[in-house]
Amino acid sequence: MNNALNVLKKYFGYSSFRKGQESIINSILNGNDTLAIMPTGGGKSICYQIPSVLFDGITIVVSPLISLMKDQVDSINSIGINAAYINSTLSNTEYEIIKDKVLNNTIKILYVAPERLLSQDFIMMISSLKVSFLAIDEAHCVSQWGHDFRSSYKKIPEFINLLNNRPIIAAFTATATEEVKVDIVNLLNLKSPEIFITGFDRENLNLTIIKGGDKKSFILNYLKTHSKDSGIIYCATRKEVEHLHELLIANDIEALKYHAGLSDNERSTNQEDFIYDKSNVIIATNAFGMGIDKSNVRFVIHNNMPKNIESYYQEIGRAGRDGEESDCIMLFSPSDIHLQKYLIDIGTYDEFRKVNEYNKLQLMSDFVYSNDCLKKFILNYFGEEYDKECGKCSNCHFEGELVDKTEDARNVLYCVYEMKRPLGVTTIVDILRGSKNQKILRLGLDKLNTYGIMHNFSKDDLKNFINTLISHKYLESIQGDFPVVGLTENSIPVLKREAKVIFKEINTKESISTNNELLTILKSLRKSLAEEENIPPYIIFSDSTLKEFSQRFPISINELLDINGVGEHKANKYGEEFLSCIKEYVESNNVTRNFTYLKSPKSNSSKTSSTKGKTIDITIDMLKDNPSVENVINERGLQLNTILDHIKKYFLEHGSEDLQLDFTNLYNEDNEREILDAISKVGKERLKPIKEIVNTNISYDEIRIVLFKNFAV
Ligand code: ADP
Ligand code: MG
Ligand code: ZN
């Protein structure tokens, strides 16, 4: 019978091993030095705890996480394995008690901080014992390439030499880059170790990357629709943590913050409040999380793209340790790349390391711009084989069309080919769009055949496209202080028309054109107001302010004040005119509004929220529980229109059989007859003509309900 499995069942109460655990444990039990690379939350601890029970001598576990040791030791003790720890938090008396126990052979697992290993007293104590096994947790700390270098880790081999017998040594880490791997094996003196890279697939993590959306409204909406869930929001800088924190507080969302600029005291209080579920959300820099064992983290949102895939995977790894489905959402904007590059620039002095960091950043960017399954990208990156598609990341889910981009790709590749000198993405964009900027003219780049050939692309779209070409290796980015773009072996077949470039793309959304329509209306209103006052239009509101109106649809003065570029004065002077224009548009076009305050709200009026996907599920779940539509509107604080939208989408996918709906209190039957009558006259295509001929006490919402009930539109 398998001893390891017995221990797993008897002590830990689990019925089976997770991927990789059994082979790692067997390797150790067979006396091999072992290097196990498993992701955060993958279950590394059991891989050394089980052998320690089965070995006759003591097991020493080196762990850098003083804050975690107590928890770990408490939890192993609680399942009946004798364990203790030695670190700087112990009082002298506590230390003496543990020492006694160790010397009496009553301790099976002893956790030690690396700084302690070479202390005279510790060596004295250990030298009389049989050490069967030495486990080095977070072993990447030995490598300067890793992200948490600890110089005391380099002393570990010296400690081993001081022991009577060389124990079996196993190293554990979640960081798997080649340099780190090599460092662990060499610097820890592992003897022909068996190396395992497994379990990187955390099946319950749903990866999503959202490019180019409004990050703030996304976060606010998400938090409102997931208010019962616990989650972490990572930001790249302290400043962003502070800003986002203020924003949430201003929107009545309780949240904690965590970054290196806070006092030790505040940090540990906030961390505890998060761990003990006193507050659901914590906004943090990457300083937060090492050693956070909280198992019910339901989501990790990255407000910025992290600097490399290791950090990303480690950070999202903090979600769903309990195995429950969890969301990992990265909100990406291209400026994140510049920000990370800047952080590397100011944080890395060693030139060699800097280039290494740039390369990792490039791979991170490749990941973000990839069109393939995100899971596959990551697992392959970590050296684990995975050739299927996960079916649940945003790329797998994304219902785009496959579009032949060969001609566009050829234009870009040809430009890189003919420019003769290495240039960066921005310059290539300028050439292709026919920019007349100084650099282009000075370098004579306006003489190239491809100059201006892609002028119909917007700057952002073209940049996006080039980055996607890089991500799919049709081009490469060559790192340095100024990264430049070069051709790859995949470029030639495309240039020769021997290979096609096919990308998945969103079919252009109708909503974009509707927005433009409102923008046009608002611009003409602005123009006529400006003419009346004899001032230039932009003095009234800038283009970007109007654009924001057309995207966020404010319909009250408070909402208007939340738009960038609207102060109290202008709100008073022009507010009513613009609001009635927007209101009319919203009503007659059946627009689903999605208004969320981004500045501090002046009052708490009319906050609504909605996001796609999950939020639909919530609506439907509530309806299955209680068919009253009114109830859902009240409970969720969403508008009828939004709820109807959810129901329609649900019907489209699942049909209408299993969903009862009750519209009580939302309409009355006499009005229904009148509305149906009106529809027979003016049709059901637009709401406004219907509204115009029915009794004025009939609301747009009632018309919507009647349309939905009778025609499912
Ligand atoms: P890591 O150190 O790799 O980040 P942990 O060792 O802390 O991960 O394990 C993460 C969680 O997974 C723990 O709650 C642990 O109890 C649980 N776990 C580990 N192995 C198994 C298993 N075979 N079956 C069920 N749960 C497990
Ligand atoms: Mg661990
Ligand atoms: Zn996928």
Major β-sheet strand ordering: 3-4-2-5-6-1-7
Percent range for β-strand residues: 5-15%
**N→C terminal distance:** 64 Å
Q: Major sheet: size, sense and barrel closure?
A: 7 strands, parallel
Number of strands: 17
Q: If helices are DSSP runs of H or I spanning 4 or more residues, what is the number of helices?
A: 32
Detailed description of the structure:
With 713 residues, this protein is of the alpha/beta class. It folds into four domains: 196 residues, Rossmann fold (3-Layer(aba) Sandwich), CATH 3.40.50; 177 residues, P-loop containing nucleotide triphosphate hydrolases (Rossmann fold), CATH 3.40.50.300; 105 residues, Arc Repressor Mutant, subunit A (Orthogonal Bundle); 75 residues, DNA polymerase, domain 1. It is 48% helix and 11% strand. It contains 32 helices and 17 strands. A seven-stranded parallel β-sheet has the order 3-4-2-5-6-1-7, with helices on both faces. A six-stranded parallel β-sheet has the order 8-13-12-9-11-10. A two-stranded antiparallel ribbon has the order 14-17. Strand 12, helix 12 and strand 13 form a beta-alpha-beta unit. Helix 18 packs across helix 20, helix 30 packs across helix 31 and helix 30 packs across helix 32. The longest helix is centred in the C-terminal third of the chain and has 24 residues. About 3% of the residues have low confidence. The site of zinc ion has 8 residues, from helix 15 and helix 16.
